[in-house]
Amino acid sequence: MDGTLVLINLLGGVALLLWGLRMVSTGVMRAFGRELGVFLKFCLRNRFQSFFGGLTVTMLLQSSTATALLTASFAGRGLLPATAGIAIILGADVGTTLVAQILSFDLSFLAPVFLFVGFVRHATATNTRAKNLGRIMLGLGMMLSALAMLATASEPIRDSSVSQYVLTSLSGEPVLVVLLAAVITIIAHSSLATVLFALSLSLTGHFPIDVAYAMVLGANIGGAVPPIMATLKAEKAARRAPLANLICRLIIVVATIPFIAVIEPQLAMLEPSPARQIVNLHTLVNLTCAIVFLPFVGPLGRLTERLLPEGDEVDENAPQPLYLDKAALESPQLAMANAVRETLRMGDILEKMCRSLKLILGGANGQNFRQVRESHAVIKDFDGAIKGYLTKLGRESLDEQDEQRCTEILNFTTAIDHISNIVVMNMVELVETAQKNQVAISDEDIQDEFRLLDMVLVNLRMSFSVLMTADATAATKLIERKQTFRVAERKAVNEHLQRLRSDQMLDQEASAIHLSLLSDMRRINSLLSSGAYLVAGQKEK
Question: What is the pTM of this model?
Answer without folding.
Answer: 0.66
